[in-house]
């Protein structure tokens, strides 16, 4: 089981743990993803993104979520999420994704939509995202074609079986 530690309580040592974890697992995005790609991503995104670190029972980092809000705070863009392989399963994905959405809704009640991106040639991730989000754009970042998916919050809450009051 993983336990969330939101960005509001992160210390410098947490950012160092995240950076090491990201660099060690960055090939999960794309087998062509090189060290310089990972470093550029970290340098360019860390100042403007939020982190949600996921620690295991021993306090070791087992995953993270990195996200940022649009200027009007109505959309949140999930830049990346990685779980250590030992923590992956369909059940864990669903529960973790549900927890992430709940966290985002608590952190920012103004959210109306979530966006994600997937490398175009990653069939598994594209198929997974298409179950709960609409393909809304194609972009090229760092020389890679990516599909952008958008999930309207109300529809996503229904998919995740989250009741709103």
> What distance lies between the first and last C-alpha atoms, to the nearest angstrom?
28 Å
Radius of gyration: 15 Å
Average of pLDDT: 85
Strand order of the largest sheet: 1-2-3-4-5-7-6
Helical fraction: 25-40%
Oligomerization? single chain
- Overall form: globular
Written as H for each helix and E for each strand, in order along the chain, the element string is EHHEEEHEHEEH
User: What's the story with the biggest beta sheet?
Assistant: 7 strands, mixed
Helix count? 5
* Low-pLDDT segments: none
Proportion of strand residues? 25-35%
The overall strand count is 7
Please state the structural category. alpha+beta
Question: What does the secondary structure layout of this molecule look like, with pairings?
Answer:
Elements: E1 3-6, H1 12-25, H2 35-45, E2 50-55, E3 61-69, E4 75-83, H3 90-107, E5 113-119, H4 123-129, E6 134-141, E7 144-152, H5 153-159
Parallel strand pairs: 4-5
Antiparallel strand pairs: 1-2, 2-3, 3-4, 5-7, 6-7
């Amino acid at each position: 089981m993983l336990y969330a530690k939101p960005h509001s309580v992160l210390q410098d040592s947490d950012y160092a743990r995240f950076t090491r974890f990201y660099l060690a697992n960055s090939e999960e995005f794309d087998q062509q993803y090189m060290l310089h790609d990972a470093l550029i991503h970290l340098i360019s995104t860390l100042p403007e993104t939020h982190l949600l670190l996921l620690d295991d029972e021993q306090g070791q980092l087992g995953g993270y979520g990195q996200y940022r809000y649009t200027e009007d705070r109505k959309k949140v863009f999930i830049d990346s999420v990685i779980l250590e392989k030992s923590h992956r399963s369909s059940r864990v994905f669903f529960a973790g994704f549900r927890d992430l959405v709940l966290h985002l809704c608590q952190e920012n009640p103004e959210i109306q939509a979530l966006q994600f991106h997937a490398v175009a040639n990653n069939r598994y991730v594209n198929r997974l995202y298409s179950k709960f989000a609409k393909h809304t754009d194609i972009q090229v970042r760092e020389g890679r074609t990516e599909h952008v998916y958008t999930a309207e919050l109300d529809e996503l809450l229904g998919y995740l079986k989250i009741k709103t009051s």
